[in-house]
Each structure stands twice: as C-alpha cells, then as structure tokens.
Amino acid sequence: MAADQGIRIADDGVAEVSMTDARANLTALIRDVRYGGRSAAFTERGSRSAYVVPPGFYEKALEDRVTVLAILRMIDEIPQEERRETWARDLIRYRNELVHGG
C-alpha cells in the first residue's frame, strides 16, 4: 500500500489510516487486512481508536479469551488450605495482575 493513499505502515506492522482519510481508503485497507493478513487501525489525532483484524485473528482471540477465563476460574477454586503454598500464591498473584492490570 502506498503511503500517498493516506495509509501508512507503523513500526509494529499495523496499517494505519486517519479517520479523515478512512473513507477514501476503506476498500484498500479492508483488502489488505483480508488478503494480506495484516491488522489495520483507524487513528484520530495520531492515536489508534479502532482496529480491523483478519477473521482468523478475531476467532483465535475469542478462543484465547475462553481459555483465560477458564484458567482464572480454576485459580479461584484453589482450596483455601492450599492457598498458602508457593505455587498457589504465585498463581493468585498472576491472576490478580491479569484482572487488575497490575
């Protein structure tokens, strides 16, 4: 994709287009996502505000979310008497970091 179309490739490989240029470049952007396998982002004032991703990426993200939620539930179900064990404390700390962004 040419930069003169208003689409630029960021350092992380994501195709970016400003909201101002989005309408004129939407078809090219979607085709690049679909056939090129590249994620894309709409930007406002230089910050990403929304992403367009290939279907496989989105489907994998949904699967991963289900897996992570199942693991979090398993951690929550660690019996109280085992929560003092080092491995259990580590899992609980990791769980809290995931949930609370810590």
Number of domains: 2
Order of helices and strands: EEHEEHH
User: What name does CATH use for the topology of the largest domain?
Assistant: YefM-like fold
CATH structural architecture of the largest domain: 3-Layer(aba) Sandwich
Number of helices: 3
Name of the CATH first level of the largest domain: Alpha Beta
Mass-distribution shape = elongated
Largest sheet, strands/sense/barrel: 4 strands, mixed
Category by helix and strand content: alpha+beta
Mean pLDDT rating = 90
Cα-atom radius of gyration:
20 Å
Helicity, in percent? 40-55%
Strand order of the largest sheet: 1-2-3-4
Could you give the count of β-strands? 4
The share of residues in extended strands comes to 15-25%
Low-confidence stretches: none
Q: What is the straight-line distance between the termini?
A: 38 Å
Notes on the structure:
- It is a single chain.
- It is built from 3 helices and 4 strands, in the order ββαββαα.
- A 4-stranded mixed β-sheet has the order 1-2-3-4, with helices on one face.
- The chain has 102 residues and is an alpha+beta fold.
- A hairpin with a 5-residue loop joins strand 1 (7-9) and strand 2 (15-18).
- It has helices at 19-36, 55-76, 86-100, and strands at 7-9, 15-18, 40-44, 47-52.
- The model has no long low-confidence stretch (mean pLDDT 90).
- It is elongated and about 60 Å long.
- It folds into 2 domains: 3-53, YefM-like fold (3-Layer(aba) Sandwich), CATH 3.40.1620; 56-100, no CATH class.
- Helix content is 54%, strand content 18%.
